[in-house]
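Lecture 7 notes. Example A: sequence first, then its structure tokens.
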Amino acid sequence: MSTIARILVPLDLSPLGEAKLPVAQAQARAFGAEVLLLHVLPLEAIDESGAVSSEEARARTYLDAVAGPLHAEGLVVHGLVRIGPAAATIVEAARELEADLIVLGASLRAGLPRAFLGSVADEVVRLAPCPVMLVQPHLAAGVATPVRSFAEDAARMGPIAQRSLGLRAVEVSRVIGSVGRAATLGTNFRPIRRERLDEERYRRVLGAFKEGISLPPVELYKLGFGYYVLDGNHRIAAAREMGQVEIDAEVIEFVPLGDMEAQRSFAERRAFERSTGLTRVEAAHPPSYGRLRELAEEYATVSGAAPSALGITPERREGIRRWYTQVFRPLAWRIRQLGLARRFPGDRSADIVARVADLRDAERAAGRELDMAQALELFAIQNDAPGGGPGDLPRRRLPLMRRRA
């Protein structure tokens, strides 16, 4: 092994396995390598409708938090979420992404004088296509709570600055943590130990939901992919019990100070939101927002809502909203169905929509007229994803990812 260009670091959501991170960080600095943080979800954790499940949201939020300090050091880091059996999925990801090293945690059996490999680590060591480095976990680190702690995740991310996003609709499934009460709540955001007064209050809130009575918006902190409840645990619990998809929230986002790309991405997203009125589009790469804005405005113009020197008119805002519901959301669902994000580590569905738009324009320049849905299917074929689901994609060589400036 003459050089290491990509390091794969499988992580669960527990502090126990974070001993791997300083080791991976040192290797990445020494070789100038990219770091791929991987969390494997079981099949039942994925929502078949294409929506983000709570399990996926927790994983993405955790990976964002632990990636923060690595980004601040100038390392290229991507968080990946895959589904399937843990060991087989880790080995498959290592092959597909052409990892040069896997940094894995060894399992320790309490009371025994030596370390034994757990079943997952043992299988990965036997089948991995590259060297595997085993790191002993920090036994005193503890385990993760069912509801993520804002204080702990913020500490992982490093210095952060707060930015007010104001009132917006938030996907309930992406509310995965609490500000100050993580240790006392279950995954349904109800207290683990129930008291009579708390139960009565919850029943009143649930009754209001059922009767359609308007309640004040919840107050949330946003850190990375996920949201943490500052005020409104009962409302979140009731929304989950009712199967509500979105909830109105006053949101404050926290952005890592040491990550210049994260700062730029936040600024680009806010500019996109102000110019389009869309608050549910999130990309990983700042340039994607400009491309998406072009697509939304193009759709609005073709729909008959011409731009105005006086600013965005109600008609044009409605045209942009229709682009989101009639074009963007179906494309994002199809991208998830095809598992295309796995072909572009670090990308979100919005980034791939921007890539598809570039392909569509290239086809138009060559005299082949395609709409965005047709361009997506062509894009999938070109990237070896001809209609298959996330587990069906054949392997192909991927180019090295862009390094941070």
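Example B, a different protein, same format:
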Amino acid sequence: MSASEIGTYLYCRRAWWYGRQGRQGTSPALDSGLAWHHRHGRQVLISDGLRLAGWILILLAATTAAVLLVQGAI
């Protein structure tokens, strides 16, 4: 098994299996799977960005609360 095959398997086991069966061309099923992977990838990137934004907001709130406590404003 080549490194390329391992990469394909890790990305999508079904695509790897199709490749092993000699189905490397385009078909409606493969095109649909590729579109699904692209949509899923976008959703993952968006959720990662939102998670990072959430952590930044939590850190900002904790820092603001600490500063206000030290200043005696709370």
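Note on Example B: The mean pLDDT is 88. The CA atoms of residues 35 and 41 lie 10 Å apart.
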